Amino acid sequence: MAHGGGPFPDSQSAIEHAPCGLLQTDADGAIVWSNRTFCQWVGYGAQELVGQRRLQDLFTVGGRIFHQTHWAPLLQIQGSIAEVKLEIVTRSGERLPMIMNAILRERDGHVQQEIAMYVARDRDKYERELIQSRTKLEDAVAQANRLQAEAKDRALFAEQMMGIVSHDLRNPLSAIHMGAALLTRTGATQEQQTVLARITRSTDRANRLISELLDFTQARMGKGLAVTRQPVQLHALVRESVEELKMAFANRVLQHEQGTGDAPCYADPDRLVQLVGNLVANAMAYGSRDAPVTVRTCVDGPTFSITVHNHGEPIRQDLLDTIFQPMVRGENGNASGRSVGLGLFIVSEIARMHGGAVTARSTLEGGTEFTARLQRE
């Protein structure tokens, strides 16, 4: 029925101007009544809708398909549908998003659809913004994943290349070292002896750097350092290592202190010597030149420890927090002849492969102390 003949004559004005669109259609969707609010929204007069158009004729193409495949079957099965969001095309061609509720009723032997609808511009805008935000987030995540994969590939390639190059550099360095040793025995002059000694020291340093690079590559590629445990007498092993290191640091005071315990420790002796050498070299590079460097060993129940102590400028707290990470070097002293900043990282890896860890503390009064505490068994 048209305006003036609505189903609630005593509430005519309230229904006509309700804050929602109200419609009645027959079972096929042909409009038999609409309130003024709906007419104003779509831009059609009542006489242009009632008996002239079906509700689905006002939908977009997608809406018509939805009406045929979902709306009509669900309404027949359930007798009602709720919160269906569709777009209605107004007289001017604007697409008006609407939320619709519909219910089937029988009146005078005829089945009718009663429909209430609400303009959903704000909701539609909000949903579109959510979709855009989700799309942007998915794109950002995908981009981050791509960058992470590329970074992982580059890192793996770099580490593999580092391992290959480091390994292949050892052969020519060994040849240079052997050649210098042979020339030393052939009655070289004093000046030649000096040059040969410099060549030998340089090749020794290059070999140490290569060893660190190989250990770093092995640790970073997830395999961990190779460790072969066997019974060792900790104090004797470290004391012998300190005696050898004294020759490398002939102008400095280096001493060994034997602490508690003398039980055998199950560890890789070569790795322990490497650990001591790295810690001592670090202490020599950054510690005070006129103060001794002390290496102390202790065996304490299920663990044993190696501590290297030196005096000098303390390490800043922000450096202490990252000092065992690769490529981190201190600021004091002269470490240019030492390494590329892998020594302490390798020390921490050696400790980790022995089921232990390395700690550091540094104060102006107490000096700097690195302690590696490892599992004895």
From TrEMBL:
It catalyses: ATP + protein L-histidine = ADP + protein N-phospho-L-histidine. The keyword Disulfide bond does not apply. It is an enzyme of class 2 (transferase). Residues 123-154 form a coiled coil. PROSITE patterns: HIS_KIN (PS50109), PAS (PS50112). It comes from Caenimonas koreensis DSM 17982. This is histidine kinase. Its main location: membrane. Residues 164-377 form the Histidine kinase domain. Keywords: ATP-binding, Coiled coil, Kinase, Membrane, Nucleotide-binding, Phosphoprotein, Transferase, Transmembrane, Transmembrane helix, Two-component regulatory system. The keyword Cytoplasm does not apply. It is a multi-pass membrane protein. It comes from the Bacteria. One of its GO terms (molecular function) is phosphorelay response regulator activity. GO terms for biological process: osmosensory signaling via phosphorelay pathway. Its EC number is 2.7.13.3.
